[in-house]
TrEMBL record:
Belongs to the glutamine synthetase family. L-glutamate binds at R320, E326, R338, R359. SMART domains: Gln-synt_C (SM01230). Its cofactor is Mg(2+). ATP binds at R338. Binds 2 Mg(2+) ions per subunit. It comes from Mesoterricola sediminis. GO terms for molecular function: ATP binding; glutamine synthetase activity; metal ion binding. The keyword Metal-binding applies. Mg(2+) binds at E131, E133, E210, E218, H267, E357. Keywords: ATP-binding, Ligase, Magnesium, Metal-binding, Nucleotide-binding. This is Glutamine synthetase.
Amino acid sequence: MFRTFDEARNFIRENQYRMIDLKFSDMWGNWHHVTIPASQFTEEMMRDGVGFDGSSVGLKSVKSGDMVLLPDLASGFVDPFCQFPTLSFICSAYEADTKRPFAFDPRNIVARAEEHLRATGIADGSIWGPEYEFYVFNDVSVENDVNVAAYRLDSVEGAWNAPTAGHGHLIPFHGGYHAIPPKDALANLRAEMCIELENLGVPVKYHHHEVGGPGQCEIETPLFDILKAGDATQIIKYVIKNVAQRNGQSATFMPKPLFGEAGSGMHFHQMLMKGGKNLFYDPKGYGCLSQEALWYIGGILKHGPALLAITNPSTNSYRRLIPGFEAPVNAFFSLGNRSAAIRVPKYADQPETARFEFRPPDATCNIYLALAAQLMAGIDGILNRIDPTANGFGPFDANIFSWTDEQRKAIKPLPASLKEACDALRDDHDFLLAGGVFDEAQIQDWIKHLMADFNAVNNRPTPYEVARYYDV
């Protein structure tokens, strides 16, 4: 939004903004914020930063937690959810004493990944297009204690409300794809979300109802460069949740909130650019993809099991990655096949559009780490010329679910649990360390954190288990 501090300061004065909100990501991708009065938005603040405790958000140890936030002036946007006129900035973390970029800050990791890309000479930029799937519920209750475990989610569109809804326009299970009003009761809500996004400078391609009958939605944007894709994702999640809250509803990006219904993913469209041209385009290649694109795909699929520990870092992620819901469970690529881990869109066949999408990820990821890790896997694929076909990753353009068990043995599975993904990352992470993009200690801490989460969930009995085994 701004190129210089003077531009930002003049905008604040001319528009009488009272508060400046500084937003930043923790290690797990959650946004936090600290707010300062506009009077404190000074050149000294831009030089010295605003102090915070990095240990409280997983960025540092307790004994050396002092850090500072420095706002990225280009990221400024008017916050529509504050009572008083507020201008927000996305920040990166810096060392408190030296004011150097903190190595483990997620935004700084993305910047290093793209620097590494340029240093290899492969390309000078990368373009990304995450897709945003989410559910909207009008009532959410959760209870967990020593003697109780229960939740209840309700949607005005839910078919379970048929006996009491009284209007007869409910969406059947799995029947929500591009539903139209009056069945689509969320069209105006999504439109409000999109208007807010465009007001904040985040362009929107379209929005629609997704497959999940009880309240599943999707908003899609055009493609961005890698850092903008990360920042836009944080803004989009913030806007979607707050617009829903403002309308008395609740939005969730949880991958699998409903048993037996479609899950919510975050598919990543991606391409590399060099000299202003799409490096992935070749009109004679498979799906109009170049040799570099195929090697990149080879890197993604070879490191796919390890990548899932970063792109799918929750126990709930693997309740979505099951057969029968257009969620990929196997490591292969294909033209137009939505059950493939990598889908090459048939409509993306022009020099400016040729690309593919990696379909396993979901929005529980830290968006910055997920972008950086996928890019690093793709770079490794190109540098080592990893041929996806020679490595057994396809392309498989047939319906693999119609194959025999013997035929399916040739396809390599993706992890079926968070523990399997963590084990894969523990064994395969050298590609992330190239160019100093990720750090060995950081990866080990990441695995430790995820395994603690896995054990916390795995050690708890569920209501279904009580119903299933109480009478043994």
